[in-house]
Each structure stands twice: as structure tokens, then as C-alpha cells.
Design goal:
The complex is a heterodimer of chains A (about 110) and B (about 110).
Chain A (H helix, E strand, L loop, with lengths): L2 E3 L4 E5 L4 E3 L2 E3 L5 E8 L6 E7 L7 E2 L2 E6 L4 E6 L8 E9 L5 E3 L3 E6 L1
Parallel strand pairs in A: 2-12
Antiparallel strand pairs in A: 1-4, 3-9, 5-6, 5-10, 7-8, 8-9, 10-11, 10-12
Chain B lengths: L4 E3 L2 E4 L5 E6 L6 E7 L6 E7 L14 E5 L5 E5 L8 E8 L3 E3 L3 E5 L1
Parallel strand pairs in B: 2-10
Antiparallel strand pairs in B: 1-3, 3-7, 4-5, 4-8, 6-7, 8-9, 8-10
Classes of the chains: A mainly beta (about 110), B mainly beta (about 110).
């Protein structure tokens, strides 16, 4: 079984500043993927970034990057130069390679302050 | 279509009625997931289908909930004898690796 834990129910950041959202996970699989999803008030779930477990290099997508610490089972999301449009609920998720079980954390509500 | 499509977008039903929610996944995606999300809450896993394997129904909250996936494509989530606590947004996703979500169906039981 997989578990994903997000220990920060709410976070806030000043516009143009940097914020890091935390996520830890647990899995017995050796092959898995990790994701961060963004859910704005429109409720549409949007994939922000993905990381394959076998890759040591941290994934980066423009202002979004991850710090993937495989041994510690940690997968944090860093948002640089925060924008008002980044305000949303952010979910961390893991997908097992074999059974394709997709597990989500409880989410972090991010507020961006102008 | 290019993305995951769910219908209807919104559904209001009377307590005790049955409802069917539909999900059209991305063509070629082998995995399909249903989640439930109450207002301001996280995603509650309901059921998932992976290829021709038996579905994982471990998240279904009661026997009033059922789902099927026909021909490895379209899926229908059925809720029988709806209760007010069933009111939520029901999200569907399909995946090969990363999961792509539909826009959800907001179900309101009155």
C-alpha cells in the first residue's frame, strides 16, 4: 500500500517570493512516479510536474521545481517568483509502477499575497 | 477527444433517487480512476480500473455505489438510493503514467 502525507494544510507567500510545499510518501514499489497537481477554484485538476523514481535529477518546469530525496521519501515542490495565479490547492500524488495505484495527499492550500 | 470528459457537469437529484455519472477517458489510457471530493477537502479514492484486471473497489463507501467500464473505455459510476451525504464533486481520471482529470460532476442531493 502507498501513503502520501502533506503536513501543511495551508501556506502563504508574498507575490514574487519563493515557497516550498512539503510532501512525504511511502511505497514498497521500486518503480513509481510522483506528481504535484494544482486545483484552482475552478476544481480542474492540473498536472504541475512529474518525477520518475528512477531518475536522480530533480524535475523542473519553468518556475516549478522539485526536491526529490528518494532515501528520505520526500518530494517537495518549490515555486519561484510566485504569481497571483499560483493560488490554489496543491496535491502531491504517487503512482505505483505495477498496479497503477494512484494515491493523493490531503492537499496544501496556497495563498499568494499581493 | 483530447482530454477526459465527464457528464453531466452538475446534477441535482432528490434523496432516494439513483444517479449515473459518466466518464470518457483519453483514448489508449489503460487506467481509469474515480475520486470523490467534498467541499474544501482532499480526494477520496473510490475505484479504479486497470486494463483487463479486476477493478479495485476498495474505496467504495457502501454497496449503493458501483461502477463499470465498458470495452476498456467509457466508465459509469452509479449511486443508488442517493443520500445527502453523497453530495460532492466526483472526479474521474485516466492514466498511462501521469493521470489526467476531467472537470468533475458536482452532485447535489436535496
Amino acid at each position: 500500500a502507498q501513503t502520501v502525507t502533506q503536513s501543511q494544510p495551508e501556506m502563504s507567500v508574498q507575490e514574487a517570493e519563493t515557497v516550498t510545499l512539503s510532501c512525504t510518501y511511502d511505497t514498497s514499489e521500486s518503480d513509481y512516479y510522483l506528481f504535484w497537481y494544482k486545483q484552482p477554484p475552478s476544481r480542474q485538476m492540473i498536472l504541475v510536474i512529474r518525477q520518475e523514481a528512477y531518475k536522480q535529477q530533480n524535475a523542473t518546469e519553468n518556475r516549478f521545481s522539485v526536491n526529490f530525496q528518494k532515501a528520505a521519501k520526500s518530494f517537495s515542490l518549490k515555486i519561484s517568483d510566485s504569481q497571483l495565479g499560483d493560488a490554489a490547492m496543491y496535491f502531491c500524488a504517487s503512482l505505483s509502477g505495477s498496479a497503477r495505484q494512484l494515491t493523493f495527499g490531503s492537499g496544501t492550500q496556497l495563498t499568494v499575497l499581493p | 477527444g483530447a482530454g477526459v470528459s465527464q457528464s453531466p457537469s452538475n446534477k441535482v437529484t432528490e434523496k432516494g433517487k439513483d444517479v449515473e455519472l459518466r466518464c470518457d477517458p483519453i483514448s489508449g489510457h489503460t487506467a481509469l480512476y474515480w475520486y470523490r471530493q467534498s467541499l474544501g477537502q482532499g480526494l477520496e479514492f473510490l475505484i479504479y480500473f486497470q486494463g483487463n484486471s479486476a477493478p479495485d473497489k476498495s474505496g467504495l463507501p457502501s454497496d449503493r455505489f458501483s461502477a463499470e467500464r465498458t470495452g476498456g473505455s467509457v466508465s459509469t459510476l452509479t449511486i443508488q438510493r442517493t443520500q445527502q451525504e453523497d453530495s460532492a464533486v466526483y472526479l474521474c481520471a485516466s492514466s498511462n503514467t501521469e493521470a489526467f482529470f476531467g472537470q468533475g460532476t458536482r452532485l447535489t442531493v436535496v
